[in-house]
């Protein structure tokens, strides 16, 4: 539309990366149901995750194709802000990975490997809270709360009841996949809007 601000290339790149990451994570979470819920149910959940992830990847590719039309112009303040956000993202992502590895090792030594998956879900959920501040996105706060609740619920059930590990892991995996899938859908919607702006 005339007079509408140019699409920043940094924003395009961020959405493309977000879509690819959500495709990977959604597929990974859904893949857990193949072993925890063998048979038709697990296969159906995994298939749904793969289809959603394929949509995210296709959307990412379509957005990447208009990257050349996006603007690279940035004010000095915008450049500093983008650099700070990138560095902060890197630190948070690294901290998340380290905490997951350490937690898995500790739980294994304590004889509670059954708590690993919901712990991972909790850590991933918590890492979205700083992301909300870094990228100034309200959806990150909602997703952080939802996924953290899924992880905590899984831990609570395994610690306080005699529920089967496979049942709990399957439910946690589905909850996590729904969260990452929702995030992917958000990025897909943003990508569509950016493509429309870039090609109008």
Structural description of this entry:
The chain is mainly α and 200 residues long. The chain has one domain. Helix content is 82%, strand content 0%. It is globular, with a radius of gyration of 19 Å. It starts with 8 loop residues before the first helix and ends with a helix. The model has no long low-confidence stretch (mean pLDDT 91).
User: What does the main sheet amount to?
Assistant: none
Approximate strand percentage: under 5%
| Derived structural class | mainly alpha
Helix content: over 70%
Number of domains: 1
| Sequence stretches where pLDDT stays below 50 over 5 or more residues | none
Q: First CA to last CA: what distance?
A: 6 Å
Order of helices and strands: HHHHHH
Give a short overview.
The chain is mostly helical.
Secondary-structure blueprint:
Blueprint: H1 9-36, H2 40-64, H3 76-109, H4 116-135, H5 138-160, H6 165-199
Helix pairs in contact: 1-2, 1-6, 2-6, 3-4, 4-5, 5-6
Looking at this protein, list some descriptive labels.
mainly alpha; about 200 residues; globular; 6 helices
């Amino acid at each position: 539309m005339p007079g509408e601000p140019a699409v920043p290339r940094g924003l395009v790149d961020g959405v493309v990366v977000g879509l690819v990451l959500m495709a990977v994570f959604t597929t990974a979470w859904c893949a857990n149901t193949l072993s925890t819920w063998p048979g038709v149910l697990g296969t159906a959940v995994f298939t749904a995750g793969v289809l959603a992830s394929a949509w995210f990847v296709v959307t990412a590719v379509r957005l990447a194709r208009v990257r050349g039309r996006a603007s690279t112009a940035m004010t000095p303040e915008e450049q500093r802000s983008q650099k700070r956000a990138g560095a902060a993202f890197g630190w948070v992502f690294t901290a998340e990975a380290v905490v997951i590895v350490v937690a898995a090792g500790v739980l294994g030594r304590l004889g509670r490997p059954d708590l690993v998956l919901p712990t991972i879900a909790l850590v991933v959920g918590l890492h979205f809270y700083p992301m909300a501040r870094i990228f100034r996105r309200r959806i990150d706060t909602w997703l952080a709360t939802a996924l953290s609740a899924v992880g905590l619920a899984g831990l609570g059930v395994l610690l306080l009841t005699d529920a089967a590990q496979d049942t709990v892991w399957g439910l946690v995996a589905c909850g996590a996949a729904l969260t990452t899938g929702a995030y992917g859908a958000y990025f897909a919607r943003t990508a569509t809007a950016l493509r429309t702006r870039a090609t109008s």
